[in-house]
């Protein structure tokens, strides 16, 4: 290859490395600048009470986030589900609640959202105490994968969104996992924005996780679902559901935990109006 050809190839490579991010940023900016469709706003108001009651400045920011989210994420219907704007907006509105007040692109590793009509079956390998591996089949309402996919039951998505104060929301749960998985695995410690914040985060969440494990073991009631006692990753996702759906109770009963989540998510939902 001649020096001229080598130089031309290098220019193409450099253009690709520089032009790709620049073009992506341009597309996102164009998406944010587009008027938000009135039909989409009506879907949010009807289907997502949490987003409907946002303060005006956050509501505008949420709508811009939704536009970028829909530009970059692909929705795939499973078991004969036909993807509609109602599905896309209802899911995107809840997912984008978790990434308000951030400069970064929401869920950079996420490529696809798979939507089933209802609970879907998955096969899992479970080790027995004897060491034997046992295959089991479970019905799930949602799953988050490190390979850039979230799987959701549309029936559960609708039901959980409609009741905005019960601390249960499959979309918020699975997208909390996505944030946790951005480093390649989930351990209940997503990127906090600053390494200096991890000692406080670890101390508070370790204590709260231990308290939830004790409550689950003894059968005591808890604001957080006992499923969060499974492991730190599930604790983080369950606590995120409660943070957004029952913030006043969480701030009152678990003030240190609430403060850590308010710092992480950069919002204070205990101050949002509720209807």
TrEMBL record:
Do the record's keywords include Thylakoid? no
- Kindly name one Pfam family recorded for this protein: Peptidase_M90
Q: Does the keyword Phosphoprotein apply?
A: no
Keywords of this protein's UniProt record, alphabetized?
A: Membrane, Transmembrane, Transmembrane helix
For this protein, the parts annotated as crossing the membrane are 6-26
Q: GO molecular function: any one?
A: metallopeptidase activity
Q: Name the source organism.
A: Usitatibacter palustris
Q: What is this protein called?
A: Protein MtfA
Provide one Gene Ontology cellular component: cytosol
């Amino acid at each position: 290859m001649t020096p001229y050809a080598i130089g031309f190839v290098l220019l193409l490579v450099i253009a690709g490395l520089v032009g790709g991010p620049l073009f992506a940023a341009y597309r996102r900016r164009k998406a944010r600048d587009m008027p938000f469709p009135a039909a989409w706003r009506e879907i949010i108001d009807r289907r997502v009470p949490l987003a409907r009651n946002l303060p005006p400045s956050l509501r505008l920011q949420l709508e811009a986030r939704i536009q970028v989210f829909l530009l970059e994420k692909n929705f795939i219907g499973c078991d004969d589900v036909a993807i509609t704007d109602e599905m896309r907006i209802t899911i995107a509105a809840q997912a984008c609640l978790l990434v308000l007040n951030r400069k970064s692109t929401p869920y950079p590793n996420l490529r696809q959202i798979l939507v089933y009509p209802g609970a879907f079956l998955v096969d899992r390998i479970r080790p027995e105490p004897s060491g034997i591996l046992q295959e089991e089949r479970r019905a799930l309402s949602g799953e988050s994968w490190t390979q850039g996919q979230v799987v959701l039951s549309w029936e559960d998505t609708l039901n959980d969104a409609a009741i905005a104060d019960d601390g249960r929301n499959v979309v918020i749960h699975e997208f909390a996992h996505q944030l946790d998985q951005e480093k390649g695995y989930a351990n209940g410690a997503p990127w906090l924005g600053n390494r200096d914040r991890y000692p406080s985060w670890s101390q508070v969440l370790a204590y709260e996780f231990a308290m939830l494990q004790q409550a689950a073991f003894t059968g005591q009631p808890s604001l957080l679902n006992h499923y969060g006692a499974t492991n730190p990753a599930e604790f983080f996702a369950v606590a995120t559901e409660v943070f957004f759906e029952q913030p006043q109770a969480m701030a009152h009963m678990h003030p240190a935990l609430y403060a850590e989540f308010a710092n992480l998510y950069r919002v204070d939902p205990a101050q949002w109006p509720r209807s």
